[in-house]
From TrEMBL, chain A:
It comes from Naasia lichenicola. This is ABC transporter permease. GO terms for cellular component: plasma membrane. One of its GO terms (molecular function) is transmembrane transporter activity. CDD domains: TM_PBP1_transp_AraH_like (cd06579).
Automatic annotation (TrEMBL), chain B:
It comes from Naasia lichenicola. Keywords: ATP-binding, Nucleotide-binding, Repeat, Transport. This is Sugar ABC transporter ATP-binding protein. Residues 9-249, 273-509 form the ABC transporter domain. InterPro entries: AAA+_ATPase, ABC_carbohydrate_import_ATPase, ABC_transporter-like_ATP-bd, P-loop_NTPase. PANTHER family: CARBOHYDRATE TRANSPORT ATP-BINDING PROTEIN MG119-RELATED (PTHR43790), GALACTOFURANOSE TRANSPORTER ATP-BINDING PROTEIN YTFR (PTHR43790:SF9). It holds the Pfam family ABC_tran. The keyword Mitochondrion does not apply. The keyword ATP-binding applies. SUPFAM superfamilies: P-loop containing nucleoside triphosphate hydrolases. GO terms for molecular function: ATP binding; ATP hydrolysis activity.
Automatic annotation (TrEMBL), chain C:
It comes from the Bacteria. It is found in: Cell membrane. It comes from Naasia lichenicola. It is a multi-pass membrane protein. The keyword Cell membrane applies. Pfam families: BPD_transp_2 (PF02653). The chain crosses the membrane at residues 33-52, 58-80, 87-107, 113-135, 147-168, 180-201, 232-252, 264-281, 288-305, 311-328. This is Autoinducer 2 import system permease protein LsrD. The keyword Cell membrane applies. InterPro entries: ABC_transp_permease. GO terms for molecular function: transmembrane transporter activity.
Amino acid sequence: MTTTQPVTEPPRSLGQAARERLGTAFGPWFLPTLAAVIIFGLMVALRPLVASPTGLNLVLAPLIPLIFAVLAQMFIIAAGDIDLGIGSFIGLANVVIAVIIPDSPVAGILFLIGMVVAYAAMGVLIAVRGLPSIVVTLGMSFVWLGVAILILPTPGGVVPEGIVSFVRFNPQVVPGVIIVLTVVTVAVALFLSRSKYGAVLRGSGSNAEGVRRAGWSVIRAKVSLYVLAAVFGLLSGLYLSGQTGGGDPYIAQSYVLLSIAGVIVGGGSFKGGEVSAVGAVAGALVVGLLGSLLQFIGVQSSFQAAAQGLVLVLVLVLRALVNWIQKVRRTL
Amino acid sequence: MSDQSPDTLVVQGVSKRFGSTLAVNDASFTVRRGELIGIAGHNGAGKSTILKVVNGTIAGDSGTVTVNGIARSADTTVAHPEKLGVRTVYQELSLCASLRVDETAAIFDHSARGLSWRSTAWHNLRTVLDEMFPGHGIRKDAKISELSIARRQMIECASTMIDSTVRPALVILDEPTSSLDAASTASFYAYLKKRAAEGVSVIITTHRLHEMIDNLSRIYVMRDGQVLSEQRAEGATKESIVTAMGLAAHESSRVAPIADSSTVTTTDARPTTASEVIVRLEQPGDDGASEVFEIRKGEIIGFAGLEGHGQLLALEAVYRASARRSGAVRAPRRTAHHAVSVTGDSAYVSGDRGVRGIFPLWDVATNISFSSLGKLTAGGLVKPKAEAALVHEWYSRLGIKGQSTDPITSLSGGTQQKALMARAMAVGSDLLLLEDPTRGVDQATKSEVYELLRGQAAEGQTIVWYSTENEELRNCDRVFVFRVGKIVATITGADATEDAVIALSFGGQDVAPIDLEGAVR
Amino acid sequence: MTNLETRPETTLSAPTTNRTAGTVALRVLKHPALPAFVGMIAIWLAIGAIAGRGLVETISAGIIIATFLVIVGIGQLFVITVGNGGIDLSVSYVMTLSAFLACQIMAGNDANIATGIIVAVIAGVVAGAVSAALIEFVGMPPLVGTLAVGFALQTITLIYSGSVVGVASPALSDFTTAQIGPFPIFGIVGIVIAVAFAVILKRTSYGRRIEAVGQKPVAASFANARPALIRASAYVLSGGMAGLAGVFLAAYSGGPSLGLGTSYQLASIAVVVLGGSLIAGGRGIISGLWAGAVLLTLLTTLANITRLSGGWQFIIQGALIVLVLALSRNPLARR
């Protein structure tokens, strides 16, 4: 509320400058990464074997499908939306891979492509009609689940050997999970923050009107993000299938909340556009490793969901607090 | 540009209607190659609408728009105006808060491609920035959300001038300098003049009239959707433009302007009644002692001044400080410039009907009775007969036409405004607060509104009235003139002529560029 | 104003509509709840035609089961109508927890009915208040706030349900299934509740504020309403209603179970949308919600009769909600 905005702004306090430097040097991914490392450190302290290549594989492999799910959710949150159907979608992918692909690979792959197209259509519907993504994706989650149940009413099916061995690929030199983790993180991070269209996508989530005025198609951006989400949902389903060896429509239901938690813990914001791939992967690791850590300590599995939910709430409350403090400081 | 016709833009007979409001009425104007022109007018005069028709964001109803010799019917939209060389900076900023500066530059700059897209875009933007705003201090890796509004505005302005795949031919700037300081504004206009010499044409709208006069070649003045006059910038004065904007038939009341003064000027305007104090505004004076302004029961007080100088903030503070029951008192409310205390309850009428006024899903009756439901209920339930009676009473008192069961959105702007007046007046509150209530309303309705307000005041209701139309202020008992957030003068309604108010608003000096209300709206 | 009383009532007729048969018919045809009622009747008749079951038995059974959905749905309707992206995803978890709480307190004893119901509703109200605090004061999006509360409740229920064996009071169970002649008592209770809340929404100043805040929170704040407070109240109401529905559902099905509320998370949103309320807020249609609830219930009946698998039922429910949203018109949309 000043009368003029001088071009040369007043000298910043040391803390402010330090914070700014920290912010640009490390980005929003720094804190979640630190948290993931600390949790991992705690796990190693409890069971030193975790640090061995085999241990690493054992601990991290079950988190790979979750990491893909978090990345899928990250694309949707980047669009300023929220996906409540990602769990059922991954479940459907899992069922298709365990039931249809063994019988007829071509039909199975066409089916999976159809699922991606359906996600694109959902993005168009949400963008063009201005519908709330929450309700649309919640409705669609029942469609995915219903289709999965039609294909496979009770858990069963057998995932083809090729997929299982691909997913469980583990060269002795470097643990397979580390390879997957690195490749995926680097690829997504490069696309999202180092490619021009990645910037357009992030921009469209935070100010769609502005991006549209600059001559970009906002609907195409939305569709791209939904397609990316679908592809990563399929990858999550693929890894889940390979790891479990069978199909279960309900297998990924818990991923809905966990994926949102992962993105938010990883520095993402519901405002849209504020996402970081490294942060999301770190957030997924925090949320996932936290579950494993609790298991190590011997906490009941029923508490784990609550603890993971609690982390989400805590992070949001803390951020709200920080925002509030900053606001108060500004007005003083 | 391949086409070398002397006119970059020719607008002919463009009209645009929103529902029942004629936002643009048969507007025509021309921008020659390499010319800087301004469009002046109050809020709602149709400036933004005509510019959006020009760049093809919205479709007009009739008329033609010719850009660079290529004519199109105004009722078509253009998907990619930037491909025609038309660039626009809107009042609401269009930068993405989540992006870095160089990424933002790349979004605007379609020529930045390949692996070095960020550095190319940043290089192109910085070339313009360095010249347009020397010492801008913007780093390429800063996030937009961390930048001040002024720096964001600099980036937007600069991005219109980069040589992308298509060079800029016509640049439309809607309030480009609202957050810039004097030095930046000066270098900005210097840059515009340089680019104009190279053949770029620029259209600017701004509330800072002196900027137009000092820097542009011609100024078109709009009012009620019409392009009313064209003035050459040398020859034009603030007063001549404001007079054209107001189009007041106020020659009869014209008096000599009050002597300019840079300090607080107060004519001997004292409260017109000796009744109880309803509103008390306190502000720090120049000498450190606080100045107190009192509004008494039954007075009509006008808040005047140039747009954005704190009138709206003060009015809202009065609303927020008022109690929920008649006669009650709440704790004083502090704003950046005032401490406000109010005795009694209040009702608020906004001229910004779409956002701060109507409930668009309801019919007129439900809209009118909403604020008065407390006295219409028995045992918690709204009494249908009492509600209908109230609605009917105000229908006839305000002369509202049509059925009370019609959807409010089917009414004309003026009638909607009457319904909102009815909603507020029906409360029967101690205080009636009006925020430019006659914006976009026809003259006949205005006269009715003035009549009505005098009636309310006679019945003992206190009225505080923020107006952007200075001629209205003659209906007030006293007028508080605001400048840079503070009350700088109080004058009687009779003294509140167009000229007097303008003179006091400027205070005999160039007012610091300001938009206090930017954060409110 | 002062001359309100002095004005004779005879002059009232002027601005109000003359209610001829034509205008009434037009109002019915344009009413947003119409599709829900038409759909409900169509499915009702279809069940009669396909299964050859008595129409009266079909609808009276349907109305009973729909009542649980009506009660939860009303809370959801208030949350959605109050706008700002309002949605309550915790209702299913509130229902389950309340069912366990109430059944433990009732313990099969009719003397404890009132206590059981009150505790269940209070549990829901507390959950709603926590959601409201997270959303309005911490500033979480409604989705996350209510989902977080929901998962907390789920965990509480998981831990707590292991240690209790609750039984609903027999009288309450009978109440949910009893009939007077062909009329199901509980179904009529559902209609009464729906009418009561329709009156609250349309004929009280509280209800008007709910719709006003849902349309234009800024305009409402300039017309003496407090948007944050009004919004918070909707979450509290939704929690209370979910708690109430939980007890009744437990009584109807003989006792609580962990999956008791699960299907109500989507269904409660579906009935709001089906009933013609605006998903963006500002307009709530409770008659439509009631018809939508009966429609959904009859749809399940139809699916059961035709031996449609559970998968299809999910698909139909999910697709229906997306379809209705895609086809619905937003009266506020400019373009």
